[in-house]
Amino acid sequence: MDRPASVVTALPPSFLAMIDGLQEAVWLVDAQTHQVLAANAASQQLLGFPARALIGRAIESLATTPEDTLFWSDAAVGRREGLHTDTMMRHADGHLLWASRRVSHVALPQGDGLWMVTMRDLTRQRQQDEERDTLLAELRATLESTADGILVTDLAGRICNFNQRLATLWAIPEHLLTERNDQAVQAWMRRSVVDGAAYAARLSAIQEATLLHTSDRLKLLDGRVLERVSLPQWSRGRPIGRVYSFRDLSEALAANQRIEELSHNDMLTGLPNRRALMERVEYAQALARREASPFALLNVDLDRFKQINDTLGHSYGDRVLKEVALRLKDSLREVDTVARLDGDQFALLIHQADARGAEHAARRVQEAMSQPFCFDTLSFTVTCSTGMAVFPGDGASSEALLASAERAMHWVKESGRGTFRFHQPRKDVDLLSRMRLDHAMRQALQEHEFRLHFQPQIDIDSGQLIGAEALIRWRDPLRGEVSPAEFIPVAEESGFIIAIGQWVLQQAVAQAAQWLQLGLRVPVAVNVSALQFQQAQFVEGVAQALREVGLPAELLELELTESVLLRDADDALHRMQELAELGVLIAIDDFGTGYSNLGYLKRFPIQRLKVDRSFVRGLPDDASDAGIVNAIVQMGRALNLKVIAEGVETEAQRAFLSRCGCHEYQGFLCAPALDARAFEHRFGPPAATADGAAAPVRSNVRLLRGA
Questions:
Q1: 3-class SS at 182?
Q2: Which NCBIfam families does this UniProt record tie to the protein (predicted)?
Q3: 466 near 459, Cβ under 8 Å?
C-alpha cells in the first residue's frame, strides 16, 4: 500500500496490518485534514479505485451525498459521533452501487485521531430484496385479480394471507381483517353459513387431514351458495399450510335451474314441453304396468289457428294460446298433465283412465273451448280437434302412443274438425312400407326410373286427335311396375309430389316440343297437385319450362282438382290469371267428385271440365251416373266450356256421351296410355308419296282401334 511516509510512520504497524486483513472495504481518514491516509485491498475491489489514487484525496470528493456532506461538516467542528447508514456510492467506472457504510472515530495518542470508514457491498442484497418485493407484489396482484376469494392458512389454521375478494364474498368487516384477528374472522365466517356447527366440524376435519383435497358447497344465510375448494400448500416438498378458494355459485346455479326449466317448459305458456311430457308418459307407463291400470293421451290441435295470426296478429295469437293453456289445465285434475307440443298443438296426459275416462276428458276440453274468447273489444270462438290414444292398446312406447293420438287428431281434421276421436289402427297401412316406398321414389328420380306415357284425347264425334294426357309410369328394379295409385298418395303425403310434378311438367313440355318439330302438333295435358300449385314459384316454373324448349303456351294444359281452387280461392284466381296471361290452358280434373261450385267456374279462366271415370263406368245403364254426367255436360256447355270424359272403354259409353253433348273423351276405347314412340307411330305425320304428295293423316280413331 502506498501512503505518505509522515502519516504512515504515525500509524501503528499492527493497525495497518489489521485493516489489510479485513474483508470489508476500509478507508482511514485523517480527522483534522479529512484526507484519506490508507485504503485496503477490499476497498479497491469494491469501488475500483487503486490505493495510490486515494491517498491524499479529501473524503468529501469521494462521499458526495447530502448526508455525507453534512456529516463531514459536523466532524470538522469537532463532532465525534459515528455514522451507520446504507448509501449510494460511485464506482471508478462511474456506475452507482449500494453499500452499507459505517464511519467510526479512532482515537490516537497523538493528534485528533482517525476516522475509519468501513463499507460493505449491498448491491446483490438489494437486488434480491427488489426481486422478493416484486414477487410479493405480483403474488398480491394475482390474489387480487382472481375472481375467487382466497384464504391461506398455516398448518395450525392461522391466517397467513387473503385477498379482497374473500372479504367481499363473506362480507367480513374491514376492521377484523386489519386487526389480523384470526379467531374473529373464522367466527364471522362460521356465523354466516346456514349450519354453523356442520361448517365448523368440516373445517376441523380438513385441517386435521394435512394432505386432503376437498370441494364443498356452503349455503349462506343471505341465500347465496359458495363453493369451497381446499388444497394443501407445499414448499420444498413438504406441506406448510392450506389454501382455500371460494367461488359464488349463486348465478350459475340460478342459470342452470333456468336452463333446466326452459328445457322442460314452454316459454310462452309455462306448460311442460314435449320433452317433459315424454318423461311423464314413460313414468305413467311404468306405473300402469306395475298397477295394471291404463292411462290416456290426448292430442289437441286448434282449428284454423293460422287465421287468428293472419288477421289479428301474432300478439293476439299468443294471448289465445295462453288462454287455451289455462282452460285445458282447468278442465283436468291436478294429477293430470297439460303440455304444449308445438305451435297450436297441445297434449293431455290423463292418469288411470280407460276409453271412458279419456272420452270424459275430451268432452270437458270441448266444453271449455266452446266458450268465446274475449280480448279487448273482440269476441270470437276457437274450436279444437282432439285425437285420443289409450295405453297399452294404442302404443307400447311414449312415441308410439303420441303418434297414435296425433293420427287420430288428423282424422278429426279430415272429417270436419271441432270434435274428438279415438285412434283406430289401420292394418291396411304399413307405415314402414310407406317409408320404404318414399325412399325408393326419391332414388327412382335420381336413377331416371320414371317415364311418361301419353293417353290420346279424341273428339267424340269426328274421332280426330285433339290432345294427350301425360301420365307417369315407374318400373322399380325390385317391385316391378308400381301403380301411380300406390305411389302418388305417398308422394303427396311426404311432399315429394312437388319434385315429381316438376319432372313430369318438364318432360311433357319437352316431348310436346319434340313432336312439334316432327310436324305433330299435340296439346299435352299435365296433372298438377295441390301442393305443387301452391308453390310460390309455380307460375314462373311453368313459364321457364316453356321457354327452355320453345313450346307455344297453348299446347300446354294444366289439370287442377276442385280442391286446389277451393282451398284459397283468391290466391288460386291470381295464379290462374297469371297462367292465362302466359296462354296456358286450364282444365278441372275429376269434376263432380269434390265441392262443385258454379261460382268458381264463372270466376276462373277455365277452358275444360273433365268428367271423372267413376261416373262414366256405369254408363249407359246406371240411371244415377247417367243423370250426373248429363248434368255436368249441360252445365259445361252452358258456361261455354269444353267437356271431356275419361275412362271410356265401350262404344255404348261413347255413344251415350255423344248424345248428351260431351265434346271429347279418352280411355281404352281409343287407346291405353302409350309411350312416346308408340304415340308417334300411331299419330305421327305421314311419309311423303312418290310424287311428293303427302299421304292422309292417320288420326281417325278407327285406325287406332285396328278397324
A1: helix
A2: GGDEF, sensory_box
A3: yes
